[in-house]
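Fold Annotation — chain and its backbone

Fields — amino acid sequence, structure tokens

___
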Amino acid sequence: QVQLVESGGGLVQPGGSLRLSCTASGIIFSIYSMGWYRQAPGKQRELVASISSSGTKHIADPVKGRFTISRDNAKNMVYLQMNNLKPEDTAVYYCNSRYLAKDYWGQGTQVTVSS
């Protein structure tokens, strides 16, 4: 059974930082591309950042320079370091794993940026 479990969300003030973690089980983690998506109320889910099995990273323009993605294949984990958070970063953040036609999602973790 495949499971992706996110953690690390919460309430933070503008300018603050959070680190999201995603632990994967039930997959051969090292061959999967991993990604973080987010969905704000009333908006479509959007890609935030991704990292391929070989370590190639993609960071979406709205968060470029503020967010970084990394992975630890030994721990089956992917991370999203979020710095200089803004109110518009408020959303539910989802972990995603993808390999060929296999596509899995976590249940999401809420990030709220507010003073």
Remarks:
- The chain is about 0% helix and 55% strand.
- The longest strand covers residues 91-99.
- The chain has a mean pLDDT of 97.
